Amino acid sequence: MGAGHAHRLYLPGDSAVHRLPPQCKLVAVLAFVLLVVATPRERMWAFAVYAVLLGAVAVTARVPLRVIARRIAIEVPFVAFAFLMPFVANGEKITVLGLRLSESGLWGAWNVLAKGTLGVVASILLAATTEPRLLLLGIERLRMPQLITQIATFMLRYGDVVTAELGRMRTARASRGFEARDVRATRILAKSVGALFLRSYERGERVHLAMVSRGYDGRMPVLYDVGATAAQWSAAAALPAAAALVALAAWMVP
Amino acid sequence: MKDVHVPDGFIDAPVSIAAGAVAVAGVAVALRGARRELDDRTAPLAGLTAAFVFAAQMLNFPVASGTSGHLLGGTLAAILVGPYTGILCVSVVLLMQGLLFADGGLTALGVNITNMALVTVAVGYGLFRLLLRVLPRTRASVAGASFAAAVVSVPAAAVSFTLIYALGGTTDISLGKVAGAMIGVHVLIGIGEAVITAVTVSSVLAVRPDLVYGARGLIKPLELRTGAPVRPAGDAGPAEPSRA
């Protein structure tokens, strides 16, 4: 991950994809990515069709291409890894542009690049069209234990608060002339981490007391429910259904 | 300390699904255990700790010659808030990174949770408790045990990744090369992680020893020391302002 997560992916909008209930989109994306991963890597055309399918979703959802392109950068460490593969993998060597490369390494690189990129784009589309709060409601509808979704809700709600706290500590360090130059800086930075933990945990204690005083008994009241109709389920199924046909063809056609 | 969020397509479908089942079982055990560690305070406290892990991963540390890395935090979270809550926090962070930031493939979520939450915490926290049992009961040994636990936990995650790769890797790189590269790099990463973990744990221990779950019962609780009441001779009145 490396650079941290400065910006969120959600793009407010009112497209057909935005309006689908979150649980339908979650299941659709998961099924789609599983089908992509299960497709034999030699069927290059299948991956092209998958890309076209995702492109159609992006157009329907009105997610601009440059948002997707910017976010794909998260893949960079794996792209570097993929480029190394043809040089280090075993198997028969072939000569490409005067370089002796491993054939299976080339296939491996293609495999990771194609499937990894399709997976990232599918996740980007999900995150761009679904509000984080609704995503959590969606996973709760999919029978995720409530404790997990509660923890995730708190993390989401206080993530910015804790990150801002870290930012203020950085300002404070910088205003006292601190600059992280080498390993010796670690001691000071780790003390900040310790202080950050204390502030976060103590905030948690206060939040808990505030919740108890408002009647919290271990479960959150459901204020907003996201039911899904059969029509919405079948609309969301369009993507994985099309992908299933492609995957089936890729398995059958030699 | 670049951590590796495995993307989709790196591990084949059957093994990804099997790792998902392992992750679900591990998180289910952690859910039961976390209620024991934190009772009804679990959600807010684990949530804030997850936010802390998430934020702490953004802090970059200079490692060597211009490169920097960041904390993974599995062992640190386990020592501070307990192993079960630690597993939940790291798993939720991974889940959110996959869902909200497209970081780490959704089909690889099981692999990522197994490596970075289950294995890291089990190895790190297990070693930490084991060391505390043999070491003298001092703050220095808590720091030393944290260091050792974190330094081992990161390569342990690399070993577990290599095992999963051996079962379901999609590329034809010899296992020796993968193991060598992964474990070699992660030994270095582990040292940085260990320094941060040890200093962080001992700085929390200095201020709120009651908040270091792993050192519970080890550090004497702070006690209020009041000297024998000194009464000025001849003063019989109840002049003490507080009786607490």
TrEMBL record, chain A:
Coiled coil: none annotated. It is a multi-pass membrane protein. The keyword Cell membrane applies. The chain crosses the membrane at residues 44-65, 72-89, 109-128, 233-253. InterPro entries: ABC/ECF_trnsptr_transmembrane, ECF_CbiQ, ECF_transporter_component. Keywords: Cell membrane, Membrane, Transmembrane, Transmembrane helix. It is found in: Cell membrane. CDD domains: EcfT. Signal peptide: none annotated. NCBIfam families: ECF_T_CbiQ (TIGR02454). This is Cobalt ECF transporter T component CbiQ. It comes from Actinomadura fibrosa.
